[in-house]
Design brief:
The protein is mainly α. The protein is 73% helix and 1% strand. The strands form two sheets. It has a two-stranded antiparallel ribbon with strand order 1-2. Strands 3-4 form a two-stranded antiparallel sheet.
Length: 871
């Protein structure tokens, strides 16, 4: 009885056998191709072809090349004609050289008839030869002779002008000749359709007739612009309906160059016009260029359509906006172009193709961006101008806003800057407010993009096809493809948030610039900027707590509030009263915002800013009291003390750490102020130690604040001793070290697991380190000896009881003390030794260390582990 396997098993077996057959067939085909290539030399004109009626070898003979589908065979090469091609090519080149030499050398000895006959014969022969060669299948040689014929026709034209018409205008003759040659070469290329050179050459020649004609006629620049535009339109027609990719590419390049030149001519004439009537004629040229670009973009591919839309939009703005701009002063012309650029947004209702409409909208965005770039430097001057007041604080209130900025900008020519910012801000704010309507209007431009469908092979393998999905955001018109390689577009909520953020930032900038343009009084400017900071803080607090998706608005408000606070703070430095009022108001405003806001990150930012403004206020207090910087340093510590108390109140609140770190920076500023006076520096360090000790009371701050407090107290002691010029610091440090060590011993008895650094570190360091510092400057032998003995005893105690602090501190002090005592003798020995000996000893030491590197590394690790096991 025959066994019949299940269908699934039988199918798997068949698949394996078919795979083996395919692999074997590919191997045989590869071998066959190699044999064919070895037996028959390839012809230069051979090209692979497709023959569905026969099986054959793949075109590639490389080992391991992928097998081609069945039915693929290479086209059989024709009979080898390499020798014939070489002979014909050399013959054509020699004929050309002979013709040129004859023209240059023997031309003058011939009459007009002979010259004409020679030119006609040579040119006619060069034009006829490609037709004969094409019938014989010699396409490459035909192309070479066609190029020669093109050169000969140019020589013929030059010869005709030089001999037959020497008195004619050169530019006019060139215009006519280029037009005639373009027509002749177009007819020649169409007659011999297999040649690829004549038609592109005809397109190149067609670029010059109108331009040279206008130049020869002495036409004004406007006529030259029209000639350039007409040539560009002709190129566009050729690019749309021309024959072959070479013709179309050449026409696209020529049209782009001519069109760009026409636009530059029109723009230059429009911007330099003396009045609206003078700008009307260049505007007509620009409008015609816009219409031509839009017509070319109507049915062009996606990329060309968008480029055409951009060019059309920019040209239309330059044409329409240039007329009113010619009647305005320099400071207001940008507003005319901006209004025209904003008017381009009406293209969404014009029924243009999607890609062309998107290009026009991109042009509108470019115009708006250009206007903003023109206005933003003046806004930067308003925000950064008060930095100049740092060099002369409290010099007196200036008369107006402009004088406080110290800027040399021509504000009279920037009068339109706040209007530009306000206009764009109003439009963005309207879009943010009525976003659903904007989405509905722009819906036709959000149609799906054309993408390649998944191929049948991937579908057969079970790969899911890409699916159209809309990103989050109510009614968002921007679609994207879900799947590999999909392009991600911003969601509707993100776009709306960006619009709101832009409206807020530009509106704020418009108000600031308005104050400068109007040159409001100094007090009004300071009060207005402070009020703006308060408004931005209110928006930031409200937006952060609303939970809305448009998070860009509160973030922008937060950044604007901080930036505005810095700017108005610098602006207030001109007057003492204004400085106190502004920084006091900023401290209260930011502290209130930190209390009201719900999100953690904005709360931390507001709290930190409030601490900074409060620290500045304490510095102002010292200046008002006519205190020197070192005398004002203790006053600066008031805010760090408040941050320590606030941190104790907040405990583990996430805001506590940023606030305390900011207070620590204020304490660092106080230390910097007191550096110039040692007694005050010791006092400030001691006060900082008290603050650190207060923070160390909290368990979560103890690991860092405890060590910091001990270090500050010891450092304060050293500074105080150095300021008092004490030569025997042991008399002052031992009374501190002995009680500290007693406390450490009691601590270790109560808690044997306590670290030796916590128990004995402060007490030992309080005496050993100052004594070591004095010993290095002491010429006597008693103190280094006593210090060395004490360090040796401490080191031995540390090794005996396995105490890390005693071992490390004692060993370091002992080593440094011994080095100090040995230094004179080492210097003597070094002076007596030959100069080559120290480098030799150093090299020998390196060799020894290198040879025993692994052993030394293991010893260092064991030492590290041994120290780590100590308490």
């Amino acid at each position: 009885m025959e066994h019949v396997p299940p269908p699934a098993e039988e199918l798997a077996r068949l698949d394996r056998e078919l795979a083996e057959l395919d692999a074997r067939r590919a191997q045989l085909l590869t071998r066959r191709a190699w044999l064919l290539a070895a037996l028959r030399p390839p012809a230069p004109t051979a090209a692979p072809g497709w023959n569905p009626s026969a099986w054959g070898a793949p075109p590639s003979g490389r080992p391991g090349a992928p097998a081609q589908p069945w039915g693929y065979v290479p086209k059989q090469p024709s009979a080898p004609r390499s020798a014939q091609n070489v002979l014909l090519t050399l013959g054509g080149l020699l004929l050309a050289v002979a013709a040129v030499a004859f023209t240059l050398v023997s031309w003058g000895s011939m009459g007009i008839g002979g010259r004409s006959a020679v030119l006609a014969a040579v040119t006619l022969g060069a034009l006829i030869a490609p037709a004969v060669l094409l019938r014989r299948g010699l396409a490459a040689t035909a192309e070479a002779l066609a190029a020669l014929a093109l050169v000969l026709t140019l020589l013929d034209v030059y010869a005709v002008h030089a001999v037959a018409a020497p008195d004619t205008d050169g530019l006019g003759f060139t215009a006519v000749a280029s037009a005639v040659l373009s027509v002749l070469w177009t007819a020649y290329g169409l007659a011999l359709g297999k040649l690829r050179l004549p038609l592109p050459a005809a397109v190149v020649l067609a670029q010059w007739p109108l331009l040279f004609w206008a130049w020869a006629a002495g036409a004004p620049a406007l006529v030259v612009g029209w000639a350039l535009l007409a040539t560009a339109v002709l190129d566009g027609v050729i690019a749309r309906w021309g024959k072959g990719p070479g013709v179309r590419v050449t026409a696209c390049v020529g049209g782009s160059a001519m069109g760009f030149s026409a636009l530059m001519v029109g723009l230059a004439l429009s911007t330099t016009a003396s009045g609206p009537l003078g700008a009307a004629a260049p505007g007509a040229l620009l409008l015609a260029a816009a219409a031509a670009a839009l017509a070319g973009a109507w049915r062009a591919p996606k990329g060309f359509a968008r480029t055409g839309g951009v060019v059309a939009g920019l040209a239309a703005v330059a044409a329409v906006g240039g007329v009113p701009a010619a009647a305005l002063s320099d400071g207001w012309r940008v507003l005319a172009y901006l209004l025209c650029g904003l008017a381009l947004t009406g293209v969404v209702r014009a029924g243009l193709p999607r890609d062309a409409a998107r290009g026009v909208l991109a042009a509108s965005g470019a115009v708006v961006a250009g206007a903003l770039v023109w206005a933003l430097p003046s806004l930067a001057a308003v925000l950064l101008g008060p930095v100049t007041l740092l060099s002369d604080v409290w010099a007196g209130s200036p008369e107006g806003f402009r004088s406080a900025l110290g800027s040399t900008l021509p504000w009279s020519e920037l009068a339109a800057a706040p209007v530009v910012l306000a206009l764009v801000a109003g439009l963005l704010g309207s879009a943010y407010r009525w976003w659903p309507s904007v989405v509905r209007i722009a819906a036709p431009l959000g149609a799906r993009e054309e993408t390649a469908k998944p191929d049948a092979e991937s579908s057969a393998a079970g790969t899911p096809g890409a699916a159209w999905t809309a990103p989050p955001g109510a009614g968002a018109p921007w679609y994207t493809v879900a799947g590999a390689g999909a392009r991600r577009r911003p969601s509707g909520a993100a776009l709306r948030g960006a619009a709101g953020a832009g409206a807020l930032a530009l509106g704020w900038g418009a108000l600031l610039l308005a104050g400068v343009v109007l040159d409001v009084p100094y007090a009004v400017a300071v009060a207005g900027e402070t009020a703006l900071v308060g408004g931005l803080l209110a928006l930031a607090v409200r937006g952060a707590g609303s939970g809305r998706g448009a998070s860009a608005v509160p973030v922008t408000a937060l950044v604007g509030a901080v930036s505005g606070a810095v700017s108005v703070g610098l602006l207030s430095l001109a007057s003492e009263g204004a400085a106190y009022a502004v920084f006091g108001a900023l401290t209260v405003l930011f502290a209130g915002a930190a209390v009201r806001v719900g999100a953690e990150v904005p709360r931390a930012v507001f709290a930190v800013a409030s601490v900074v403004w409060g620290t500045v206020l304490t510095g102002f207090a010292g200046r008002s009291l006519d205190l020197d910087p070192h005398e004002a340093a203790p006053l600066v510590l008031l805010v760090p003390a408040l941050t320590v108390l606030l941190g104790a109140r907040l405990r583990r609140n996430p805001v506590a750490l940023p606030v305390e770190l900011t207070g620590a920076l204020g304490a660092l500023v106080a230390v910097g102020l007191a550096v110039s006076d040692a007694p005050f520096l010791a006092l400030v360090l001691a006060l900082c130690g008290v603050l650190a000790a207060g923070a160390a009371v909290r368990p979560e701050r103890r690991p860092v604040a405890g060590y910091l407090a001990a270090a500050l107290f010891v450092l304060a002691t050293w500074v105080r001793l150095a300021a008092s010029e004490v030569s025997f610091p042991e008399a002052y440090t031992l009374p501190v070290s002995v009680p500290a060590l007693v406390v450490g011993v009691l601590r270790r008895r109560g808690d044997p697991e306590a670290s030796s650094w916590t128990a004995y570190g402060p007490g030992l360091a309080a005496t050993l380190l100052p004594s070591l510092a004095v010993a290095w400057t002491d010429a006597d032998w008693l103190r280094p000896l006593l210090l060395g003995v004490a360090a040796l005893v401490i080191t031995l105690l540390g090794a005996r009881h396995r105490l890390q602090a005693l071992l490390v501190l004692g060993g370091v002090v002992l080593a440094l003390d011994g080095l100090h005592e040995l230094a004179p003798y080492v210097a003597q020995v070094a002076g007596a030794l030959p100069r080559w000996l120290p480098p030799a000893l150093a090299g020998l030491l390196l060799l020894v260390v290198g040879a025993t590197y692994e052993q030394r590394l293991r010893d260092a690790r064991r030492l590290k582990d041994a120290l780590g096991r100590m308490r």
